[in-house]
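Researcher: I'd like a candidate sequence for this fold, 173 residues long. If you have to choose between options at a position, lean toward the conservative one.
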């Protein structure tokens, strides 16, 4: 889906969009990773705050959409089986319990990535190539979070598979 969203924007849209989301773009410098920053130029504080707020809003919106989809799915399941169906309730409870450890491990892993990023960004303050250092730190943090997701995926998939199997068993009753 992501690829379909950026392809109409051109070949450089992917890196530009990624750079913007990672916060690599500053006022006075295009989000194009191949373009150098203008020496002596400082980011506009109003724009910086606006960008930070926009990113935070996007995260909140994304979470809200996921929660809305989950509620709609649960409502649809209630429609299939009845709201108080013991088999359905058992499947939901099992799935919620199954996800506790993988989700906790994922969040802990991502917290470590975030802490490492904060340390790296702090260390960048003494570097001559501040922007390059920050960009490298953010890329490392992104890769760290991606690794966390990849490591959590097998356990999360097992929970999803068990939930699907449980629902299928309920449907067969």
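Model: Candidate sequence:
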């Amino acid at each position: 889906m992501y690829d379909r969203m950026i392809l109409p924007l051109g070949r450089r849209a992917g890196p530009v969009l990624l750079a913007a989301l990672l916060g690599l773009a500053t006022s006075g410098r295009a989000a194009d990773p191949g373009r150098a920053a203008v020496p002596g130029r400082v980011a506009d504080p109003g724009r910086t705050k606006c960008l930070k707020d926009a990113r935070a809003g996007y995260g909140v919106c994304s979470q809200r959409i996921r929660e809305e989809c989950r509620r709609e799915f649960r409502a649809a399941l209630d429609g299939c089986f009845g709201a108080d169906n013991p088999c359905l309730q058992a499947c939901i409870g099992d799935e919620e319990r199954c996800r506790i450890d993988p989700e906790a491990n994922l969040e802990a892993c991502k917290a470590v990535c975030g802490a490492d990023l904060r340390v790296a960004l702090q260390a960048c303050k003494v570097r001559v190539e501040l922007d390059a250092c920050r960009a490298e730190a953010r890329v490392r943090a992104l890769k760290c979070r991606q690794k966390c997701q990849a490591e959590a995926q097998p356990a999360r998939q097992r929970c999803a598979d068990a939930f699907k199997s449980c629902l299928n068993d309920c449907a067969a009753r």
